[in-house]
Design a protein that fits this description.
268 residues, alpha/beta, D-Maltodextrin-Binding Protein, domain 2, eight-stranded mixed β-sheet, 43% helix
Length: 268
């Protein structure tokens, strides 16, 4: 081998060695990396929630708090989403419920799963269970109602809430339904005797009574409308692939016990 050939051979071997080293040391594209564009789209969404304690509510510092907030924040941390609780807007339910149906790029929670809602929204979850019930004062004159007997009662609901939607499914022309914008208004109507019963999430109702200084024992659940699950809802035009990382994160949080610990913190 001539000196010139030897130099070329050495340069060729060095080039091969550099190429192999680069191949070995270059990190492979991780699953997390492949999800980054989807996570960035989640960050651009407008997130809404409502006063629905203990699931979601305005904390003492004005920042959204609650079970579903903590679960969502833990999921965001898992997927490295640049979102914090302060990025979530608390708004009246009927207003944000219209937003999620009419404004692409919106998310709303906590939303109870129903077949009807699944047709017009996309969901991630579930996060936690929720029981929707017909609630009355324990000293009411009426006997515990069944579906047929609801026709003889005055019923209070929050407009477009799951209680409202479930009552609509069994509505007859003789039902007297009062639709309001908040649970606070419903509680006033019930205590004042202006409605006989209300249809609402039992956990949230009990929490509201305690917070107002009332006695939860003064009320009773006289009929279960739905044993449901709460989740995070998105405008129907949201690309399902964008929601995959968030769904996977919530599934992991459930599997490792994080969701159970968060729920226990607010219920103890």
């Amino acid at each position: 081998m001539t000196k010139s050939q030897s130099v070329l051979s050495t340069k060729w071997l060095i080039s091969i060695a550099i190429a192999l080293a680069a191949f070995v040391t270059e990190p492979a594209i991780s699953v997390a990396d492949s999800q980054k564009p989807k996570v960035r789209l989640l960050e651009t969404m407008t997130w809404y929630t409502e006063e629905y304690p203990p699931f979601n509510f305005k904390g003492a510092d004005g920042v959204p708090s609650g079970m579903t907030i903590d679960i969502l924040m833990a999921a965001f941390e898992k997927i490295d989403a640049d979102l914090v609780a302060a990025d979530i807007t608390i708004a009246p339910w009927n207003r944000s419920y219209k937003y999620i149906q009419n404004r692409p790029g919106t998310a709303l929670f906590s939303m109870t799963y129903t077949p009807e809602r699944r047709k017009i929204m996309r969901f991630v979850g579930p996060s936690v269970p929720s029981n929707i019930a017909v609630i009355a004062r324990t000293n009411r004159a009426a006997s515990p109602p069944v579906t047929a007997a609801l026709t003889n009662l005055r019923i209070g609901v929050v407009r477009d809430d799951i209680g409202d939607q479930l009552i609509r499914e069994i509505t007859t022309g003789s039902m007297k339904i009062q639709r309001k914008n908040s649970l606070k208004q419903l509680l006033y109507l019930l205590d004042a005797g202006r409605v006989d019963v209300i249809a609402y999430a039992s956990d949230v109702f009990r929490h509201a009574v305690k917070k107002s200084g009332g006695d939860p024992a003064a009320y009773e659940e006289v009929m279960t409308l739905k044993e449901g699950q709460l989740g995070y809802a998105f405008h129907r035009d949201t690309d399902p692939e964008v929601l995959v990382p968030l769904q996977a994160a919530i599934d992991e949080l459930r599997a490792d016990g994080t969701i159970d610990r968060i729920v226990a913190k607010y219920r103890n």
